[in-house]
Amino acid sequence: MKGKHIGLRKRIGLKLFKSLYDDVVERHELRTLFWECTLRCNLRCRHCGSDCRTDVEERDMPLEDFLHVLDQEVTPHVDPARVLLIFSGGEVLVRSDLEEAGLEVTRRGYTWGMVTNGMALTRERLVRLVDAGLRTISVSFDGFAEEHNYIRQSALSFERARAAIGYIRQYEGLTYDVITCVTPAMVDRLEEWKEFLIGEGITHWRIFSIFPAGRAKRDDTLHLDAEQFRSLMEFIRRTRKEGRITLNYACEGFLGGYEAEVRDHFYMCNAGVSVASIRVNGDISGCTSVRGNYTQGNIYRDSFWDVWQNRFTPFRNREWARKSECAECKVWEFCRGGGMHLRDDDGELMYCHYNMLK
Amino acid sequence: MNYRWKIALLALLGFSTAACCSTKKTSKGKDKSTDNIEVEGIDNRVMLMYGVPMPDGSFPRPMPEEQPEIIRPGVPFPDGRVAIEMTEERAAEVMDKIKDEAKAEVVKEVDGVPFPDGRVAIVMTEERAAEIMELIKAEDAAKAAAEQE
């Protein structure tokens, strides 16, 4: 069983990768832009990082505001073919103008995708979205009905997500994956769950585990202990070796001896490096998982491109994070304090994946 | 050490995919000119926490020093096919179709959507969505009441 130990071959690989990553940071070319188009949601998931609700005070960002930024601040500086736009929420399907939004960005040469809980995805809507340029989609699918419905707090959510994945899977040419948030209740059922997914014809699967932010911070039933986390890593490693389904662990944190064995690449946090987001209130930040106070500007006040080019220092130079438990950590050069989403408002690390690998 | 050397070394160490690179291979076609060296994409997914996979099966990666010129006649599908180019006319056509379908859906009878295994689920209509929201609210209220007790 692997753990914290990093062998010589991997250590050399990590060193080389580190210098490649330094170049990426130096260039900080925008490759992924999230648009948090709404905070409204038709579910109220226990682990929601957005703390979104069915009736939010924050109104949806008008499509024209986003397009204005795109036209004035992004398109003139990038090749749209190289930038992936991701519509996120809340639940994006609650927006009735989603097709129009997709069509508008497609006309501008961008490829777009979205993340959904699948509750409101019908076959007809999927056809319309693909017509409007949708090319990639991810659906949350957290386990069997009992586990999924517990997390999603809805008795209908499992069957709806299952149906949505069925429609997507049958749509030839549409890139997709299903995302499973692994909770303690699922750790012992992962083999069974894997067989279920394979049986459903699913080919691409992504797993993440809960970090203590948003609603999840207050819910102990969602957090894996060290033994469960290690068991999850072993499961992913084993499944990848089997090769029956493509499985990856999300970009959560540095994983010591498991690096490059549970993901296709070495750990890197691209928030603010190649990934930016425009929040529902206009805030400009790294990826939407970053909930701490790391806002770098606001589209209603600042020039997006100026912010992207000249701010984002906390994202691109992580030396500030070298404190507390990270101060003396021997893998700092590879980890750089973990993902930005793992830092709280005070810059403290909320969760260390490396230290879970005891 | 430049970019290519680092990539080559990583590949030698067995980390070609981990290096966020794409590998080059020579085309096995009849024409063996250098023009036929092509970049083979690796089927990697984006591992962003809440992101989506890249349509070309790749993920954010260091870009090569010499970037190829992009020819983009339409929106490429991940399997290499190319969708119809989006012109003003095409956009208007699609928008009309969307509006017509949306109108039609309002009066359409709810007849169920088949699952891949042949079972039938209830179609998600505006009314059904409202019903679900009511159910969720009722569940919440019941839970809150239970907690108070």
Task: List descriptors.
heterodimer, A: 358 residues, alpha/beta, 10-stranded mixed beta sheet, 13 helices, globular, B: 149 residues, mainly alpha, two-stranded antiparallel ribbon, 8% strand, flat
The 3D shape of chain A can be described as globular
Let me know the largest β-sheet of chain B: 2 strands, antiparallel
String of helices and strands of chain A: HEHEHEHEHHEHHEHEEEEHHHH
Measured between the Cα atoms of the first and last residue of chain A, the distance is: 11 Å
Radius of gyration of chain B: 25 Å
Number of beta-strand segments of chain B: 4
Largest interface by Cβ-Cβ < 8 Å: A-B, 95 and 63 residues
Radius of gyration of chain A: 20 Å
Q: Indicate the proportion of strand residues of chain B.
A: 5-15%
Cross-sheet strand order for the largest sheet of chain B: 1-2
Query: Using DSSP, what is the number of strands of chain A?
Result: 10
Low-confidence stretches of chain B: 17-48, 59-74, 107-114
* Helix-strand topology string of chain B: HEEHEEH
Tell me the quaternary state: heterodimer
Q: Give the fraction of residues assigned to helices of chain B.
A: 25-40%
